[in-house]
Amino acid sequence: MLDRIVEILPELNAAFFETLLMVGIGLLVALILGLPIGILLYVTDKGLFWENRIAKSTIGILVNLVRSVPFIILLVFLFPVTDLIVGRITGPLAASVSLSVAAIPFYARIVESAAREIDKGVIEAAIAVGASPWLIIKDIILPETKPGLISGLTITAISLIGYSAMAGTIGGGGIGDLAIRYGYYRYDDTVMITTVIVLIVLVQLIQYLGDFIAKTVNKK
Amino acid sequence: MIKVEQVSKVYNTKSGQVVGVDNVSLEVPRGEIYGIVGYSGAGKSSLLRCINILERPTSGKIVVDGIDLLQLSPKKLREARQSIGMIFQGFYLASAKTVFDNIAFALKAAGVAASQRKQRVLELLDLVGLTDKVNHYPAQLSGGQKQRVSIARALANNPKVLLCDEATSALDPSTTKSILQLLKKINQELGITIVLITHEMEVVKEICDTCAVMQDGKIIEQGPSYDIFANPKEELTKQFIDTVMNFELPAKLLKACKGTILQLQFRGDLASDPVVSDMLQKFQVSGNILHGKVEYIKETPLGIFIMELLGDTQEVSAAKIYLKERLKQVEVIQHAR
Predict the structure, then answer these.
(1) Window B:37-96, CB contacts with A under 8 Å
(2) Domain total in chain A
């Protein structure tokens, strides 16, 4: 059994970094696009300074739309887009396109609910000192939600690891791909169990790290 | 300094329209401390929040320091708000910011350069007596300290007006007192006009020059605090005054008294006149003080004494008339038996 693990090690190593790459890109895009969308969902809500029902429901519907498509369907559905962006529809880079698309609305909703935790009075106090909406977002809303933003990123990362396994089924690469190729198609239990253990350790590590950072930045 | 003209605020709720503020007009002169009292739901908070347009009035006019706030563009309104500080019952400090950054935020909002912020923040902390907490987070402060930080934040841009939304309602009595002293100091030393709302008559008694009583969105009575305390007209006002001034005699004591029991009110300088001893010398009555108290309404004494008069019926009623003439406020609590 040990021999088998040693034998698979180079491939496991490559797969591990492929997973990290896919999840990393997904997280980055979530942060760049999901965060502003989440904030926008929050500040256009009733009683806030950019209250706008039309904008709020339009963005809300779009977000729900993407979120209601099962990931594996989204993956296939986005093939043309993936082809356009990456130039191919297999491999970790291709998979990260659909992972990113899935991560954006996922993280946006987390950001929105984290922002809702802010006492409205704190925002009101900022309005009362004459702060501009932009300054309130940058200096009040973002710092106040920081612990929530970080634990949200943790949740997103872990979900993306799960999604990346699905991307493996269509040749996306990564640990999930490895598990399916050896464990599922070839009944190689050793590889299956090894990949599962690697995934468990990875998820635990991300969760622990996320919790630790969130706790450190929380001043409440 | 502040002119509120026929301001109404109507809320659209699921169960229909609710009138929060009902055609209120008031004027606060420069340098005054103006108190608005009322029970919760009376509309006093809505009214206060209309003054800096945290809530836009449905109709009416708000003029602060000569500026008609409802006519301003969003940008101009933000600038105008910098000269209207506001503090709240819930303090509302940013929990992720230190004391320093919470105060500096107000300066940043006003476009004060980073290099000048530090000195101003330290000045403000000195004013509110919190220089040692500069790097603390709000979670590490007591309620009174948080309120001091929020006062410093409200004063950061040298406002002309300070609005206080139940600023002491979440604080214990001794902290309340120290915050009120601070507000008084700010009013006197910096000349800032203060409008505060409260449900505690104690607060009005302590610092307000003028007081208005609100009920169902309307101001039902207003005037100099001293007059309101000495001579309340509306039932609700009396209720509020009673929370501070009232003292009831034990039923057992009332039963045991045979003479006429009077409640005498001494206003202002009269408190130092020997009215009672004059009366006792003039008439064939003997007096017996049952209860007495002097309250200071913003440093002016208002005394209330309850005394029993014993003697011949005619002498007693003559003494009563004499007291009424000199004191104005004499009330018979119990007639002689």
Answers:
(1) 52, 54, 78-82, 84-86, 88, 90, 92-96
(2) 1
Q: How far is CA B234 from the centre of its chain?
A: 17
Report whether A204 contacts A49 (CB < 8 A). no
pLDDT in tens, A52-71: 999 999 999 999 999 999 99
**Closest residue of chain B to A124, computed from CA coordinates:** B54
Chain A residues touching residue B124 (CB < 8 angstroms): none
C-beta atoms of B82 and A130 within 8 A:
yes
Q: What are B226-276's pLDDT values in tens digits?
A: 999 988 899 999 889 888 877 777 888 888 888 888 888 888 776 667 888
Residue A40: which CATH number? Answer: 1.10.3720.10
Closest approach of chain B CAs to the CA of A58, in angstroms?
23
The residues of chain B that CATH labels 3.40.50.300 are 2-243
Instruction: Take residue A108 and report the two structure tokens written for it.
Output: 């946006």
| A-interface mutation test, from B83, B89, B105, B124, most A Cβ less than 10 A away | B105
DSSP state of B71: G
Closest chain A CA to residue B103: A129
Decide: A11 and A26 in contact? Cβ < 8 Å: no
Into which CATH architecture does domain B2-243 fall?
A: 3-Layer(aba) Sandwich (3.40)
Please compute Rg for chain B using Cα positions.
24
Q: What is the CA radius of gyration of chain A?
A: 20
Closest Cα of chain A to B296: distance in Å?
33
Contact: B79, A124; criterion CB under 8 Å? no
Q: Which residues of chain B are modeled with pLDDT < 70?
A: 270-272
CA distance B7 to A190: 77
Q: Which residues make up the CATH 3.30.70.260 domain(s) of chain B?
A: 251-334
In angstroms, rounded to a whole number, what is the distance separating the alpha carbons of residues B143 and A97? 50
Pairwise CA distance, residues B225 & B297, whole Å? 7
The domain in which residue A135 lies consists of 2-217
Per residue in B71-100, pLDDT (tens digit) is 999 999 999 999 999 999 999 999 999 999
Report yes or no: B196 at the A interface, CB cutoff 8 Å. no
Q: Which chain A residues touch B109 with a CB distance below 8 Å?
A: 126, 129-132, 135
Residue A189 has pLDDT above 70, yes or no: yes
Cβ of residue B322 closer than 8 Å to a chain A Cβ? no
pLDDT value for B95: 95
pLDDT at site B58: 95
Per-residue model confidence (pLDDT) at position B270? 67
pLDDT of residue B272: 67
Facing A220 at nearest CB: one of B78, B108, B139: B139
pLDDT at position B60, please? 95
* Residue B153 with chain A: CB contacts under 8 Å: 125, 129
Angle between helices B143-155 and B173-190 (to 10 degrees): 20
- Asked if CATH classification 3.30.70.260 holds for the domain at B251-334, the reply, yes or no, is yes
